[in-house]
Amino acid sequence: GDSVTQMEGPVTLSEEAFLTINCTYTATGYPSLFWYVQYPGEGLQLLLKATKADDKGSNKGFEATYRKETTSFHLEKGSVQVSDSAVYFCALTLITGGGNKLTFGTGTQLKVEL
Amino acid sequence: NAGVTQTPKFQVLKTGQSMTLQCAQDMNHEYMSWYRQDPGMGLRLIHYSVGAGITDQGEVPNGYNVSRSTTEDFPLRLLSAAPSQTSVYFCASRLAASSTDTQYFGPGTRLTVL
Questions:
Q1: Could A106 and B41 be called an inter-chain contact, meaning their C-beta atoms sit closer than 8 Å?
Q2: Is A106–B108 a contact, with Cβ atoms under 8 angstroms apart?
Q3: Do the beta carbons of residue A21 and residue A7 sit within 8 Å?
Q4: SS3 of A51, please?
Q5: For B45-64, how does the pLDDT look when each residue is reduced to its tens digit (9 = 90+)?
Q6: Smallest Cα–Cα separation from A101: which of A48, A34, A45?
Q7: DSSP letter, residue A84
Q8: Which of A12, A9, A11 is nearest to A114 (CA)?
């Protein structure tokens, strides 16, 4: 079945450090890919998405490029802030006739320290 | 717009008790879904609905019932609570069932079954 694999956390960085969170996927078709973020005590919110190969999603300084050849969608940010501390989820969805379902990775906790 | 709302925020049940988790959205979204979030397992789909009167099972449906009598509401019923159902529950909605539109999440219900 379809699946998403993320790097284990927690990831602890100093403020202004470079961030990479790895995400790879397995899918039977041609998925759309997402990064969701969950701040402490809150629900998930969409951070960015990409719907076809070589698309780059970006938002709030975060970027991720859809790489079909490596089945990857790694999340990057050039300079993290304390306010970026959260859990990040990579997810995929495939268009089907009966309602597309989001398949999530296990999440990666990011802690940013001063 | 209130977005996706969930009640209650917290709930403690005894084994064998039943309860209903409420979810409502005011965005006229076609697709609604319930997830549970457990440590190290990401989010897993319990049930989903592609429109009023239509529901289907997700990945982990056992022990849960749903109905969708209106577009706005999608309650989740625990018939006889078990400790294995201790989790954080998220409701989500999306404009169209078969699309890659953004999925909006509620703030979650933290359920403890003793």
A1: yes
A2: no
A3: yes
A4: coil
A5: 999 999 999 999 998 999 99
A6: A34
A7: G
A8: A12
Supply B62's token pair.
Answer: 């056992």
**Cβ–Cβ of A101/B42 closer than 8 Å?**
no
Three-class DSSP category at B83: helix
By the CB < 8 Å criterion, does B43 face chain A? yes
For A20-76, the pLDDT digits (tens) are 999 999 998 889 999 999 998 888 999 999 999 999 999 999 999 999 999 999 999
Burial class (CB in 10 A: 0-12, 13-18, 19+), A72: middle
Contact B45, B35 (CB under 8 A): yes
Which residues in chain A are contacts of B103 at CB distance < 8 A?
46, 102
Could you please report the per-residue DSSP string of B22-80?
A: EEEESS--SEEEEEEEETTTEEEEEEEEEETTEEEE-SS-TTEEE--SSSSB--EEESS
Q: Distance between CA atoms of B27 and B65, rounded to whole angstroms? A: 23
Q: Are A21 and A11 in contact (CB under 8 A)?
A: yes
Query: B49: which 2 tokens?
Result: 């609905």
Structure-token pair, residue A111: 């802690």
